[in-house]
Design goal:
Radius of gyration: 34 Å
Strand content: 15-25%
CATH superfamily of the largest domain: P-loop containing nucleotide triphosphate hydrolases
CATH architecture of the largest domain: 3-Layer(aba) Sandwich
Number of strands: 16
Shape: elongated
InterPro entries: P-loop_NTPase
Largest sheet: 9 strands, mixed
Distance between the termini: 117 Å
Structural class: alpha/beta
Strand order of the largest sheet: 7-6-8-9-5-10-11-12-13
Number of helices: 13
Order of helices and strands: HEEHHEEEHEHEHEHEHEEEEHHEHHEEH
Number of domains: 2
């Protein structure tokens, strides 16, 4: 009976398989398997709507408002990029002092300065009413502790309107060369700005400029995408050790932003010029001068006693066995002359025969040309 029962079950199973509908797939036929699991439905409209804007979310978002000049935007995530000793910290602490007067609460986190430099920064912060944070001065603390605090703040139910956070410099807080970690850090900063905080990061450029002489920010490409505003500080160093620094707005989301020029004295006093100066052009000139330095020095020596034409300078170079061709001498003499250069090295004197003689230029005439 047992065996006959098993045979009956097998027979019924075969019959059930034989009665199952067949499905054509190409040249083969396969039996259609029963659908044992129903597809799960989702309420996708509710999921998407959960991320929609609401009156409650919008109530803390104000119209565009500048917190310092027409350069730093309240509630935005801004990065200022410059070469080392390019003036970004000096200008930023001046900005902090001025923002305090507009009732902003400033927290300046500096993990880029030496202990000696921090003494001066501490005095400036105390005198001007903003808070300087230096985690490295505390035993067992570092920029990582600041990052942990910021992540906690980003998840808190708080309104940070009126608060300005400055991070100096960015690479000490974010893994600049690690896309995933940098992305998480920037997303956290974005959460803080969504709660009203103004976040300003200072960052370094790469050692070398691009092919057009424009600086390049340090780190992965997402830096530009993740910030509301990205601007460069372009410094030009004067002979007396002072700096002229102009902004170069590279990416902006706020309308009405403007470029500015700052003068920074040797003792780090900052003044803002009434008129913008294109230090990018001056920076490119200085970079070119370094390349042409040997020939520049030779031309200076050649014209010390009397002005000379291109041919006369060339003949002198040839007689001394110097490796300067006529075309190269013409290019360099013209490029740095009073006819072509914003900061001329020598005077170009037209001869009336479609040529010029080149002679020394006085400081007074240089200043006159600069004013023009």
């Amino acid at each position: 009976m047992v065996n006959s029962g098993k045979a009956l079950l097998k027979s019924e199973a075969r019959q059930a398989l034989a009665n199952r509908p067949m499905v054509n797939i190409g040249l083969a036929q396969v039996q259609e398997m029963p659908n044992t699991s129903a597809k799960k439905k989702i309420d996708w409209r509710a999921d998407l709507s959960g991320l929609s804007t609401t009156e409650e979310l919008m109530k803390d978002i104000s119209d565009i408002q500048f917190c310092w000049m027409r350069l730093l935007v309240q509630g935005h995530l801004t990065v200022i990029v410059a070469k080392g000793n390019g003036g970004k910290t000096t200008v930023m602490i001046q900005a902090c002092a001025e923002m305090v007067k507009e009732d902003y609460e400033i927290f300046y986190v500096n993990v880029d300065a030496s202990a000696d430099q921090l003494k001066g920064y501490h005095d400036h912060a105390r005198e001007n009413g903003y808070t300087l944070l230096a985690p490295d001065l505390h035993v067992g603390k570092s920029a990582n502790d600041v990052v942990e605090m910021l992540f906690r703040m980003s998840k808190a139910d708080e309104n940070y309107a009126g608060t300005v956070l400055v991070l100096d410099t960015l690479k000490k807080f974010a893994e600049m060369m690690n896309k995933k970690l940098a992305k998480d850090f920037y997303s956290m900063l974005r959460s803080l700005t969504a709660k009203g905080m103004t976040v300003i990061c200072l960052a370094h450029t790469n050692k070398y400029d691009d092919k057009d002489g424009k600086p390049i920010f340090e780190g992965v490409g997402d830096l530009r995408n993740d910030f509301d505003e990205l601007m460069y500080f372009i410094p030009v160093k004067n002979d007396d050790g002072s700096l002229v620094v102009s902004t170069l707005l590279d990416k902006i989301r706020a309308t009405g932003m403007m470029n500015y020029t700052f003068d920074i004295t040797k003792d780090r006093q900052v003044t803002t010029r009434d008129k913008f100066e294109d230090t990018m052009s001056l920076h490119q000139i200085q970079a070119a001068m370094e390349v042409d330095r040997e020939l520049i020095d030779f031309i200076f020596d050649s014209i010390t006693m009397t002005s000379k034409s291109i041919n006369e300078i060339y003949e002198e170079a040839k007689s001394q066995g110097m490796p300067f061709g006529r075309d190269k001498i013409r290019r360099v003499a013209t490029a740095y002359s009073s006819d072509k250069c914003k900061q001329p090295l020598w005077l170009a004197i037209a001869t009336g025969r479609n040529g010029s003689r080149y002679g020394l230029i006085t400081d007074a005439y240089k200043e006159e040309l600069s004013r023009k």
